[in-house]
Structure formats: C-alpha cells, structure tokens
Amino acid sequence: MQQWYNLSDPAMEDALYEIASMRLFAGLSLDKAIPDHSTILKFRHLLERHGLARQIFDDASQWLFEAGVLLKEDSLIDATIF
C-alpha cells in the first residue's frame, strides 16, 4: 500500500489507524496493535533489499491489467493555491 500511495512511514501508520479499507486489506484490526512507523520502515527496507517491492507492484499491475484495469506509476503533486 505504501508503494502505491507513496506515503511516508509515519503517514502509513496514520492511514492504517484512520482508513478501515487499508486495515482490512492488510489484515489488521484496531483490536490489536497496528505496526508503528519504525516497523513499517524495517519491512519496507526488507522488501527493497530483496527487490520485492517492484515485483509486487509488477504482479499487481499484471493482475489488474488482465482484469481490465490499468494501473500506472506516477506522481501526485498538490497544486492548491492559497
């Protein structure tokens, strides 16, 4: 999820607390402890060290493409004018 939403580790921790669909996807519940940002960071580094983050993204993209959904890698920029 962090790869797809480009969230920092603390933002990912917050999202797991605040967004029920992310908790459900991750198999987490508020009944038990949610991983803190340092645990998320360690897990992300483990994925990166073994090249799994890109592999997971590519596999998910292929699965979605076969289901008729297009998934692309991009950047989101906030252009709010105050």
Number of beta strands: 0
**How large a portion of the residues is in β-strands, by DSSP E?**
under 5%
Domain module tally: 1
For the termini, the CA-CA separation is: 30 Å
The helix content is: 55-70%
- The shape is globular
Order of helices and strands: HHHHH
How many distinct helices? 5
Structural class: mainly alpha
Could you describe the largest sheet, including whether it forms a barrel?
A: none
Radius of gyration: 15 Å
Identify low-pLDDT runs: none
Mean pLDDT: 83
Spell out the blueprint of helices and strands.
Layout: H1 2-5, H2 9-18, H3 20-26, H4 37-49, H5 52-66
Helix pairs in contact: 2-3, 2-4
Walkthrough of the structure:
The chain has 82 residues and is mainly alpha-helical. It has one domain (2-66). The protein has 5 helices and no strands. Helix 2 (9-18) packs across helix 3 (20-26) and helix 2 (9-18) packs across helix 4 (37-49). The longest helix has 15 residues, at 52-66. It is globular. The model has no long low-confidence stretch (mean pLDDT 83).
